[in-house]
Amino acid sequence: MAEDAPSSSSRRLESIRRHLLPRPPSVLSLNPLSAAQAGPNPVIIGGMVLDIHAKPSVAPHPGTTVPGMVKYIGGGVARNIAECMAKLGTQPLIISVVGNDMAGDFLLKYWRSAGLCTDGILQVHDVATPVVSNVFDGSGELIAGIASVQAVETFLTPNWIYQFSRHISTAPLLMLDANLSPQSLQAACKIAYESGVPVLFEPVSVVKSSRIAPIAQHITCTSPNEIELVAMANALSTPGKYNFVKLEQCHNKTEAVDHLFEMLSPAMFFLLEKGIKLLLVTLGLNGVFICCKEHIDIMKDQRMCRMTALSAQLLEKLEGCFPPSALVNLSREGSSRTCVFHLPATTASVISLTGAGDCLVGGVLSSLCGGLDIMQSVAVGIATAKASVESEANIPAIFSAASIADEARKTLLSAKQIWCQ
User: Fold this and answer.
1) Measured between alpha carbons, how far is 249 from 256 in angstroms, rounded to an integer?
2) Buried b (16+ CB within 10 A) or exposed e, 125-162
3) What is the pLDDT of residues 85-140, one digit of tens each?
4) How far is CA 190 from CA 140, 179, 217, 237, 308, in A?
5) Rounded distance between C-alpha atoms, residue 355 and residue 76, angstroms
């Protein structure tokens, strides 16, 4: 009996551990119409996080608990974007870190369930997996949140990133989220710059968005919201030079968009002067501003674009919706004009807003990798974001190609050029 005691105890502990482990969500499945991408994969570097979502069923009261629902959901900006891209048929390599704990096991099991590559995910012993705890109101708006993501800064070091230099240097694009330390951001940018790989910087938050300052000259594209845009411009200029005042009352969407352009255009134009080629400024219910020079080339080599079943279907549906002859040719040689376009958001039945921005970026990047142009890609991103806000999870269980194509077409047909000179 004495010899059996240790194994019996171990079995009991393992049983308790399995009982306490958060139940994984449904298997991460790729859309049947989205075949795996061949050739070099886009690289995504940043946070892989366990999100804890708490949504009350009655109005919350300070100092006490109220009934509601608590869920464990795969989260993290980089992880969300990578999952979105995978479900749209573009399989990225994610470089991230988790702990050797229940949350880390939860995230890795979910990732492996679709056969996605975990080679870039560092699992560290005696380290807590990054966790974000969010509390929402009844309409899905975030009331409060606490993020514990120190492991990303501590363990996603330049040395770990350099191990994937070959993957980065042959990637069609690289996306970095601002959870990375400044040193790691610079290391990743250096690899990409030396190989001509375009880099997208996702600012994550107002505080972390300032980390763009030392690497701005290497950033091809960034996707801030209004306040992150202003914070980034101030980080590269005199603090407080740029500001944003939210319009409290507006009678229509046109008035709101005009106000937003007036408030944000100085910061947008300044960031273009600092070397950023493309700005995608997310405006929530008011859509997206696209700000860039008239001659712009995002992908380093169009031959690296790998058309999937989804991107082929989208191209067929979106071709000609936004003809350059009617507005401006973004790929025209020899022009230095700065252009700003507005793409509206489409009406959605909101359940949760936490994954919308990440799905927008995931939709844009997947579309660019699939051969769509900038306007088409942003329209697909907006349609993908709509699917996210209508889902309980950060990333919907599955995307409907027909729905995304229809919503993206509506957006393109409503797009407007609001500045070009």
Assistant:
1) 9
2) eebbbbbbebbbeeebeeeeeebebebbbebbbbebbe
3) 999 999 999 999 999 999 999 999 999 987 889 999 999 998 999 999 988 887 76
4) 39, 18, 11, 23, 30
5) 9
If we measure between CA atoms, which residue out of 377, 391, 317, 421 comes closest to residue 88?
377
Separation between Cα atoms, residue 257 and residue 342, nearest integer Å: 8
pLDDT of residue 335: 60
Number of neighbours of residue 325 by Cβ within 10 angstroms: 6
User: Shortest CA distance to 128 belongs to which of 154, 146, 109?
Assistant: 154
Q: How many CA atoms lie within 13 A of 76 on its CB side?
A: 32
CB 189 within 8 A of CB 199: yes
Q: What's the pTM?
A: 0.88
- Look at residue 53 and give its three-state secondary structure: strand
* Torsions phi, psi for 4 (to 5 deg): -80, -15
How far does CA 69 lie from the centroid of its chain? 26
Amino acid residing at 319:
E
**How many other C-beta atoms are found inside a 10 Å radius of the C-beta of residue 370?**
27
CA angle 316, 319, 325 (to 5 degrees): 170
Angle between helices 253-273 and 226-235 (to 10 degrees): 20
Q: Which two tokens stand for residue 232?
A: 């980034």
Q: Where are the beta strands (DSSP E) in 105-250?
A: 121-124, 131-136, 142-148, 174-177, 199-202, 221-222
DSSP states of 268-291 as a string? HHHHHHTT--EEEEE-GGG-EEEE
How far lies 184's CA from each of 43, 45, 48, 275, 360, in Å? 14, 10, 16, 20, 25
* CA angle (132 as vertex; 214, 347 as ends), nearest 5: 85
